[in-house]
Amino acid sequence: MALSLEEGEERISTFVTMARKSGLRITPQRLEIFREVAFATEHPDVEAVFASVRTRMPTVSLDTVYRTLWWLKDSGLVSLIGAGKGGTRFDPNTKAHHHFVCLRCGSIQDFYDSCLDSLEIPTQAELLGAVQGVNVEVRGECKLCLAKAALEGA
Ligand SMILES: [Zn+2]
Ligand SMILES: [Zn+2]
């Protein structure tokens, strides 16, 4: 799902407002990282953000990207997907949404569904800890991978 320019700019201004409030210095590098994350629709990991920002700003360090992303996370401006060795990915979409995960290429795409948003929390889940939200993961093969497979099979 493509992100509108307006929506992206709105996210950036939220990031900047929050940074000002918490005394985080807004350097040109940080601003570029904000921009990258705000417009990201593919749920990038640290490396992906770093690679992309570096093409526009060669002096940026992985450490700066890493710390800026975690600052965004700690400020509640982006959420994390996954954990551990597989690599943490960042999600700038703060609206209630769910994910379509491609088992072939690993892409994660957002989708919206009001029924899933209002799912009742299973008692068993509540017994495991303090629930903060529900995110449904639908798994399969994405359209791009299906198209590729069809081409290869032809
Ligand atoms: Zn795929
Ligand atoms: Zn998402």
Note the topology.
Elements: H1 5-21, H2 28-38, H3 46-56, H4 62-74, E1 79-81, E2 89-91, E3 98-102, E4 108-111, H5 114-117, H6 123-128, E5 137-140, H7 143-153
Parallel strand pairs: 3-5
Antiparallel strand pairs: 1-2, 3-4
Helix pairs in contact: 1-2, 2-3, 2-4, 3-4
Bound molecules: zinc ion (2 copies).
One zinc ion binds next to helix 7.
Please provide a written account of the structure.
- There is one protein chain.
- With 154 residues, the chain is of the alpha+beta class.
- It folds into two domains: 5-91, Winged helix-like DNA-binding domain superfamily/Winged helix DNA-binding domain (Arc Repressor Mutant, subunit A), CATH 1.10.10; 98-153, Dna Ligase, domain 1 (2-Layer Sandwich).
- 47% of the residues lie in helices and 12% in strands.
- The protein is built from seven helices and five strands.
- The protein has helices at residues 5-21, 28-38, 46-56, 62-74, 114-117, 123-128, 143-153, and strands spanning 79-81, 89-91, 98-102, 108-111, 137-140.
- Strands 4-3-5 form a three-stranded mixed β-sheet, with no helix packed on it.
- The protein is globular, with a radius of gyration of 17 Å.
- It binds zinc ion (2 copies).
Please give a quick description of this structure:
By secondary structure, the chain is α+β, with helices and mostly antiparallel strands. 47% of the residues lie in helices and 12% in strands. One zinc ion is lined by residues 43, 91, 93, 97, 99, 110.
